[in-house]
Design goal:
Blueprint: H1 3-10, E1 28-31, E2 34-41, E3 43-44, E4 47-48, H2 58-82, E5 90-101, H3 109-124, E6 131-137, E7 146-154
Parallel strand pairs: 5-6
Antiparallel strand pairs: 1-2, 2-7, 3-4, 5-7
Helix pairs in contact: 2-3
């Protein structure tokens, strides 16, 4: 185990069990040192942890931010696969895209996606700082409340 794995454990986080994608796609694609991570919904062990649409009260937004944390852990799991098991190879998160299943006019997508951004910062420190998009959408796979994708630069193996 490397330093990042130690950090994950120290934070009391765990990565999800192995899973099968819901469609015909790869969990990641590499282009040189760039890893494109497919969008991950708030699914754990085959079950969506929070269904949409997300409400506008503080409690609903907090629950959706927790769902975004689940998305981030799923992404880190996929990133570990892309790095041949060595998360210490992560050089920088470049961009994160966040999608919130919500009703038209929902203004809190950034607050929800902060849940995922916080995980990347907690786990990877400055390497987890990223550019980001946070948008509201009318629906997501499995009626999940949140989906997050990412582009990451990794060191050669």
């Amino acid at each position: 185990m490397g330093a990042i794995d130690d950090r994950i454990a120290a934070l009391g986080l765990e990565l999800p069990p192995p899973w099968t994608p819901r469609g015909k796609f790869a969990p990641f694609r590499r282009d040189g040192q760039t890893v494109f991570l497919s969008g991950q919904i708030c699914e754990w062990d085959g079950e969506v942890t929070l269904a949409g649409p997300v409400g506008t009260d503080d409690e609903a937004i907090e629950e959706a931010a927790k769902a975004a944390r689940v998305c981030a852990l799923n992404l880190i799991y996929c990133l570990r696969l892309a790095c041949d098991g060595d998360l210490d190879r992560v050089e920088a998160f470049i961009r994160v895209g966040g999608f919130v299943n919500c009703l038209s006019g929902f203004p809190y997508s950034p607050r929800v996606i902060n849940g995922a951004s916080d995980v990347f910062h907690e786990v990877f420190g400055e390497r987890g700082v990223h550019a980001r998009t946070a948008v509201g959408v009318a629906g997501l796979p499995g009626n999940a409340a949140v989906e997050v994708d990412a582009i990451v630069r990794v060191l050669p193996g």
